[in-house]
Amino acid sequence: MDPQEILSLCKRRGFLWPAYDIYGGVAGLYDYGPLGAALKNNIEDHWRQLFVLEEGFLEIACPVVAPEPVFKASGHLDAFSDIYVECTKCGETYRADHLAAGLHENPATLKEAELGKLLRDNGVVCEACKGELTAPRRFNLMFKTSIGAGKAKTGYLRPETAQGMFVNFSQLYRHGREKLPVGVVQLGKAFRNEISPRQGLLRLREFHLMEAELFVHPEQKTWPRFKDVKHQKVPLVPNAAEPVTISLGDAVSKKIIANETLAYFMWTTWKYAVDIGMDPKRMRFRQHLKDEMAHYASDCWDLESELSIGWTELVGVADRGSYDLQSHIDHSQADLTAFERFDEPKEVEQEVLRPKFDALGKLFKGDTKKIADELAKQSPSSARGKKEISVTVDGKQVKVPSSCYEIIVKKEKVSGRKLVPHVIEPSYGVDRMLYAVLEHSYDKKDDYVVLRLKGMVAPIKAGVFPLMARDGLDDIASEICSALAKAGLAAYYDDGGSIGRRYARMDEVGTPCCVTVDYDTKADGTVTVRDRDTTQQIRVKKENAAKAVALMVNNGGLESLKGL
Amino acid sequence: MDPQEILSLCKRRGFLWPAYDIYGGVAGLYDYGPLGAALKNNIEDHWRQLFVLEEGFLEIACPVVAPEPVFKASGHLDAFSDIYVECTKCGETYRADHLAAGLHENPATLKEAELGKLLRDNGVVCEACKGELTAPRRFNLMFKTSIGAGKAKTGYLRPETAQGMFVNFSQLYRHGREKLPVGVVQLGKAFRNEISPRQGLLRLREFHLMEAELFVHPEQKTWPRFKDVKHQKVPLVPNAAEPVTISLGDAVSKKIIANETLAYFMWTTWKYAVDIGMDPKRMRFRQHLKDEMAHYASDCWDLESELSIGWTELVGVADRGSYDLQSHIDHSQADLTAFERFDEPKEVEQEVLRPKFDALGKLFKGDTKKIADELAKQSPSSARGKKEISVTVDGKQVKVPSSCYEIIVKKEKVSGRKLVPHVIEPSYGVDRMLYAVLEHSYDKKDDYVVLRLKGMVAPIKAGVFPLMARDGLDDIASEICSALAKAGLAAYYDDGGSIGRRYARMDEVGTPCCVTVDYDTKADGTVTVRDRDTTQQIRVKKENAAKAVALMVNNGGLESLKGL
């Protein structure tokens, strides 16, 4: 199938189109038109229904602009980059590893100098004008900006929504009443200042994510509801074995998938993708290769979908360990831990910092008590071997020399311990899923296109047609449209052209059913409801039109309308 | 009422809090926590229901990053700025006009030099450290970034969502099948790099808008459904008369409000605000003062709400004339017009550019035909008196001297005319509306806080409590939670503390009702439903719990549950 066909349909019928077209456009930026925005809203709403309402995750919404320290801690400032070359003649930019495709077995692993040599040795020039290329340079893929006037703060547009959830862990843990697991989600825009985006919706500079972060006890990765799904079979492509279609229960017990929680959310992901209309025969989970996985991740699976350009990653489901929280703890000194209460208090030997009040008193006079309190909270390991440590008193940093405290071992009854939770992260690319849904729904016979969208995601739930735009048929059709709208069902009124042409217009954009008002409606008060997929029709009372459309949207089929 | 009380509730209970707190925060950036994000979603969803489903506006979703030419045309690049001063000692920045408050009757109208003199003459120094201030400088309030590597394009984060709709007018006009009026909406983030934001949710650097652009025929600003609302009375503060509470019909006929369309959408705005829970006694429409209104606007009204800090603008409803489209036409040369078909063709005299083929042929040889075709499309008025005009042929600009064409008058039968639509724009600040809803819902007796949120916007629709977390009561409560979730109703399970305390926790966050499972539930299968506002209770069958909660959410009250 030709992806151009879909993109042309998308543009013509108002799903999406390149943004800022009247000013020449910007590669990697797309607008969602009226049908695309509705489709996207529906895709996101169903995800909310699943994760927030049914699984109980907490939804938050953070700004997309974030200050630099967040991305220093997350690693994006140092490592979120690609290498590019620029044409010295026409200024066109290229990803160096893309130009080196075919010249090396894995050009993405090469450094700037190696790539430069490879391109030079192979005489690679500008694809557009054959001009000479610059030496490869590294480019950070975050959009940079400054916050405020004067001595501005450096800020970046977030490359993912996840960091907003990590930095807020304490708030969220408290909100969840200090219990693990606590699940959090965020839906929203993310940004990646691609060097040279050329793949339509699959590689955008501004895109939409739906991300879930499940904070769990590091040693408790079983999942109570796993028993309900462990018989479900999914096709897996493990990184160290042959592809296999296997039940999730077996995959966990054979250690193909690292733990139950990961497997449970792989199933949630699978189910969600099928719900919104992807074809399960064109889906699989591929495990990240060992060298592809982040060093801290203990396991990671991508939901891939077979598209016209090949197997494409849509969702990543990863066990990220404690990496993210630990890194923010290290960089911010904030306490992003959970507290595990023991069944009964334990006696433990513990090192603590003991303030020496004499020495403190001489140096700090009236602040002695406050400083001593702060000292007692410091971790002995961070003080060991240092000449002084810093504490914050009344908002000010105070340096306390080591003569003012000692490290002692204390026996204590403790009721529990602090721990840094692990994170299981399902991360969904909305634009890619939307595109996959379009490809998997696209059905063409001769020149007749039917988009077989699931009713739940279809942008228009029903076309409403008066057979003729006169004799009051148009008024009845308008009333039905209003009734549908009141019931939250998007309707499209159309009185132009033959009924056949009107059906075709709705089929092409995936509308699951059409309601037609004809002269019988005036006689007996019934309207026809036509099913997009069977093209069969049934008559229902006009006052039941909204009920009928709601049933069709929930995949009831015409059967379910009998008696309405 | 003390706004700190609300902000403290918001933070404690997870509505919202300052963003990036663990890294010291960034002024003007807030996170929506689990309750705030849900409240915001509900506020937006109801707006969509009203504008998209019921009024038939088309929703689109554009990127927030946009290239510079968009904002050159919109005027933001030149005029979207404030004047600031910086402390030479501590680096703190201030809006110069804010520092000059009280020293001049309207400091916002002053230029840099005037403000500098005023501050100097009055010995104004840094509020934080008494340091000396720099001279005032102008600061553009758009966040700036660059798009792409190498020779990057300058981009900005959009300061409003409106431009995305203007630049897409042609696409949207076609999508609406080339008829006026066509209404478009966009919901999403917008950005304003404030110099020194200090007003919580009322002045954010990153905020949320819901904007509608209604493109209308310039001479047709009546509105068919105005007849349904013209008897509705609203309090108006006109810019040239005394405040008055008057019907919209009278306001239009007395020319207080410029036209029916504007008045109709003022009513839509009023109704929406009341729907989501604002207090109509603390609302009014204030007309922009003559010098406050944009020069191109023919009328503009703000919906204002009385908050603890005084009357505050939440929504602007403006007739912006043809300014926006005309400006993009001028800057992009794109054809952003609508076509008005005459009832029957008219004979008109029209000036046209006629190419002189002899002269053209000598200069342009083989390109003559192409250039002549382009010349014929040019507007005679733009060519008059010029020595040459530019046309674009095969993507290249060609300069054609005036000897190659003449301006003649031609009689023609024309079937219609092109016109630049006018724009009626209702623009809603989501964060401000959310804050106003919180203030207007806040009810405190002694120390007991009840947030009287409308069920429709409440983040949690029902608390679900087992009287005791044992004897199977907890299992029944969990089942009820699941049933509510499946029905799309956010439920909160709580088995901690006394029932009274659990009610209090739900009252404080605006949950309209609570469902309690007690020992009678095991005996007769009924549960209690408690109404937040009356604190009365009624028993319903446990399998009807979702139905009961849905009725309570739609403001049915306990009366409506009888018989369930």
What does this structure look like?
The structure is a homodimer of 564-residue chains. In chain A, strands 3-10-11-21-16-15-14-12-13 form a nine-stranded mixed sheet, sandwiched between helices. The radius of gyration of chain A is 30 Å and the shape is globular. By secondary structure, the first copy, chain A, is an alpha+beta fold. Chain A starts with a helix and ends in an 11-residue tail after the last helix. Chain A is built from 19 helices and 28 strands. In chain A, helix 3 (68-74) packs across helix 11 (323-332). Chains A and B meet through strand 2, helix 2, strand 3, strand 4 and strand 8 of A and strand 2, helix 2, strand 3, strand 4 and strand 8 of B.
Give a quick precis of the structure.
Two copies of one chain form a homodimer. With 564 residues, chain A is of the alpha+beta class. Chain A is built from 19 helices and 28 strands.
Number of strands of chain A: 28
Query: Greatest interface and its residue counts?
Result: A-B, 84 and 84 residues
Oligomer: homodimer
State Rg of chain A. 30 Å
Count of alpha/pi helices of chain A: 19
- Mean pLDDT across the residues of chain A is 94
Across the major sheet of chain A, the strand order is 3-10-11-21-16-15-14-12-13
Helix content of chain A: 25-40%
Shape of chain A: globular
What distance separates the N and C termini of chain A?
A: 40 Å
Main sheet makeup of chain A:
9 strands, mixed
Beta-strand proportion of chain A: 25-35%
Low-confidence stretches of chain A: none
Structural class of chain A: alpha+beta
